[in-house]
Write a structure and sequence with these properties.
Layout (H helix, E strand, L loop, with lengths): L2 H27 L2 H7 L5 H15 L3 H8 L2 H14 L5 E5 L5 H8 L4 E6 L4 H10 L5 E5 L11 E6 L11 H12 E8 L2 E11 L12 E2 L2 E2 L15 E4 L5 E4 L7 E4 L11 E7 L4 E13 L5 E3 L13 E11 L4 E8 L8 E5 L6
Parallel strand pairs: 1-2, 1-4, 2-3, 4-5
Antiparallel strand pairs: 6-10, 6-11, 6-13, 7-8, 9-15, 12-16, 13-14, 13-15, 16-17
The protein binds S-adenosylmethionine.
S-adenosylmethionine binds next to helix 4, helix 6 and strand 2.
Length: 358
């Protein structure tokens, strides 16, 4: 048999084997009782290790960095915040410097020394950019922040570690670790104040994607798939960057959590929160939209709200999907959100309490 035929057979065999193993893995992940025998528990360290691995590749190329840099409200917020809060002569850490833009803002503001840390391959470009832009006070350090040490503490920690779910880029553990080890008493974290929102919404009719078992397509009925509801929580979440996706909020938005990284202790973040909204605009509850607002003591703010015209566009809004239900004005939507780890949306679970008499 010619070598090329043998190669074709071998490639076919190993592709089938890979596919089979992947299917087995996916299936196992969806069986919580069995998965415990094959995978380590998803503790904080495992979540962080996963994110580190993902992060290294995700932010290494130009694709993600340019989306962030082109996000005008985001860049204006950081430029203004750094101009107001970094003082000439300050020593600064830029946690997750990416292309080095926040470090450059601090350098231009007159900071004496900026340590710009990043563990992904983007750092080599950041170094070249700084030279090309005549920035001389930035020292680039290729490491994960948890491995970064300094003999002398700093005045300011800059960071942009907010994920779509706010917590999913490990902002809280990374910033708190640097704060506790390397920030002077009275030093600043920029930004430090956060509001986390999880609001009941009606999705725009043209953009709404029902659960598959709710569908009937030209008379073809998917209702029987109701018995095969997926177990993995990822299925129950949608992402959109489309401003038109949310038709309206059912209630008046208010933060489900507020915290300040200057003072927060990780244990302060409750693992179960209850979100109760009086319905002020009637409609169909389709999902809970997750978004955040970051702000500084100087009153600057940055929002990822789907209904905020000035929102920072590169953050997507995440939808925690629910069974649909119609709500009238004056009724109450009541959600319990429980999280295993805030940094790991796969560990979030939510349930809408049924309406009295509903
Ligand atoms: C959201 S980007 C922000 C980049 C840049 N600060 C900006 O504002 O354009 C986050 C960056 O932080 C880096 N990063 C995330 N966690 C890190 C950590 N714990 N230590 C070092 N770098 C980290 C990523 O590789 C990525 O380049």
């Amino acid at each position: 048999m010619p070598i090329s035929s043998l190669q074709r057979i071998s490639v076919g065999f190993f592709s089938a084997l890979r596919r089979g193993l992947r299917h087995c893995g996916d299936w196992l992940h969806e069986q919580p009782k069995l998965a415990g025998w094959f995978y380590p528990p998803r503790d904080d360290d495992a979540v962080e290790a996963n994110y580190r691995e993902f992060n290294l590749h995700y932010f290494a190329g130009f694709g993600e960095q340019e989306k962030m840099l082109a996000d005008r409200p985001r860049m204006d917020f950081y430029h203004a915040a750094i101009s107001q809060l970094v003082r000439p002569g300050d020593r600064v850490i830029d946690l997750g410097t990416g292309t080095g833009i926040l470090a450059a803002f601090a350098a231009r503001r007159g900071a004496a020394k900026i340590y710009a840390i990043d563990h992904s391959g983007i750092l080599k470009h950041a170094q070249r950019l700084a030279t090309a832009n005549n920035i001389e006070t930035v020292e680039f350090v290729s490491t994960h922040s948890k491995n970064f040490t300094l003999a002398e503490k700093v005045d300011v920690i800059l960071h942009e570690q907010m994920g779509d779910y706010l917590f999913d880029e490990a902002m809280v553990p990374n910033v708190l670790d640097l704060r506790d080890r390397l920030l002077k008493p009275g030093g600043l974290i920029v930004p430090s104040r956060f509001e986390f929102y999880c609001e009941p919404v009606q999705i725009d009719d043209r953009r709404r994607i029902p659960f598959i078992w709710e569908l009937k397509v030209h008379g073809y009925d998917y209702a029987c798939l109701d018995r095969s509801r997926p177990q993995d929580s990822g299925y129950y979440r949608h992402t959109s960057c489309d401003l038109g996706v949310v038709d309206h909020f059912l209630g008046a938005a208010e933060p489900a959590l507020t915290f300040d990284l200057q003072t927060l202790q990780a244990a302060d973040l409750a693992k179960e929160i209850r979100i109760t909204r009086n319905v002020v605009k009637a409609g169909r509850l389709d999902a809970f939209a997750v978004f955040f607002r970051a702000s500084t003591a100087a009153g600057l703010s940055l929002s990822s709200s789907p209904l905020d015209a000035g929102r920072a566009p590169h953050w997507g809004f995440r939808m925690l999907r629910t069974e649909t239900a119609e709500y009238k004005v004056g009724e109450v939507v009541d959600l319990i959100l429980s999280v295993g780890q805030w940094a790991e949306p796969d560990s979030w679970r939510w349930r809408v309490e049924s309406k009295p008499g509903g």
